[in-house]
Amino acid sequence: xxxxxxxxxxxxxxxxxxxxxxxxxxxxxxxxxxxxxxxxxxxxxxxxxxxxxxxxxxxxxxxxxxxxxxxxxxxxxxxxxxxxxxxxxxxxxxxxxxxxxxxxxxxxxxxxxxxxxxxxxxxxxxxxxxxxxx
Length: 134
Fold this sequence. Notes:
Layout: H1 2-10, H2 12-29, H3 35-55, H4 59-96, H5 106-117, H6 123-127
Helix pairs in contact: 2-3, 4-5
């Protein structure tokens, strides 16, 4: 019995399903609040991820889901390896470019740094914005 529970707990798809169940119950049972929009957005993402895993069981689509999963795993390994450097750059950009709206908040600056690191550096939008004070 304990061995079966251990195998059940090792599968991340089971954790995904439990996440869907919990977030759906939280959204449906509690009175309507602003934070429920965030929980509902997370729930929607979890449901579509589960649907992608189910569609991936069909031979016609399996290779594409496997390819997406492998790319996502490699991306998160990369982020995990360089997180200290990314946070350092984000804090440095937040200190240096405090007048730009992209770096007013350190968390938004971290997100912007990750986007810039992935090759989506929008130089014009970041540094030549009309709203930024010089």
